[in-house]
Design brief:
By secondary structure, the protein is α/β, with parallel strands linked by helices. It has a domain of 162 residues: Spore Coat Polysaccharide Biosynthesis Protein SpsA, Chain A (Alpha-Beta Complex), CATH 3.90.550.10. 42% of the residues lie in helices and 25% in strands. The protein contains 9 helices and 9 strands. A 9-stranded mixed beta sheet has the order 3-4-2-1-5-8-7-9-6, sandwiched between helices. Helix 8 packs antiparallel against helix 9. The radius of gyration is 17 Å and the shape is globular. The termini are far apart. The relative contact order is 0.14.
């Protein structure tokens, strides 16, 4: 089975070289697709590119994380899809092999990695621990936990919903509603590092409170567009 890494970015060419340098440390990635959203988008275009002998595909896409990821999937014939945030850092470069092994030999169909924040603190360590526990118990990962899924399952649920926020939460809800057992999901013990800059900028407790409030509002049926407006007012990009 072949593994494709898909990374959505927005208007940042300098980020691509840094991304590729990190991904070059992995040994079991068969394809890299960087889905780049641009302000002057006209149509989807894909180019074969290379940087320091690292081959990748550059997809020009309409802006929107779910749109960028869904579009990228159409351009790969790989069996396994691994979605990574552009600012993620890795502690372990054997994760790609472990994902392949889980899917090929243990019939796992989706999952993610445990999260760790950097710069870290006691409170952020607690938040990460609770996030990892939530993912394991409820079988729901968010995008910063580096989601992986078989292309077969991805297509069965029609990918990520075209919404501006909570697309990752809804993705796993759709999977849970589609599956009739609990053995399709695995949270790896390997950790991925996510930036804590928005916690530092807006206050850790205040940020956590607002994020949980957004989730509650989403479950109560609030418009994703309204939630996205609230989120944009609090995030650090």
């Amino acid at each position: 089975m072949k593994l494709a890494v898909i990374i959505p970015i927005y208007n940042d060419d300098k980020m691509i070289e840094n991304l590729l340098t990190k991904l070059n440390n992995f040994k079991n990635i068969d394809e890299i697709i960087i889905s780049k959203a641009v302000d002057n988008f006209k149509k989807n275009e894909i180019f074969e590119k290379s940087f320091n002998n690292i081959n990748y595909k550059l997809l020009i896409s309409k802006k929107g994380r779910s749109i960028q990821m869904n579009t990228a999937v159409k351009y790969t014939d790989c069996d396994i899809l691994w979605f990574i945030h552009s600012d993620s850092e890795f502690l372990d470069y054997t994760v790609d092999g472990k994902i392949k092994n889980l899917i090929e030999k243990e019939n796992i169909e989706c999952g993610g990695l445990k999260i760790k924040f950097y710069p870290n603190s006691i409170l952020l360590s607690l938040i990460a621990c609770l996030s990892n526990l939530r993912a394991k118990i409820f079988r729901i990962c968010f995008g910063d936990q580096s989601i992986f899924v078989t292309k077969k399952l991805f297509n069965e649920i029609n990918g990520f919903r075209d919404i501006p926020i909570m697309e990752d939460l809804q993705f796993f809800i759709d999977i849970k509603n589609h599956k009739n057992n609990s053995k399709y999901f695995k949270l790896l013990n390997n950790k991925i590092i996510s930036s804590s800059r928005r916690f530092k900028k807006n206050g850790t407790l205040r940020t956590i409170f607002k994020m949980h409030k957004l989730k509650i509002m989403y479950f109560k049926g609030e418009s994703p567009d309204k939630l996205n407006e609230i989120y944009n007012n609090m995030k650090d990009r």
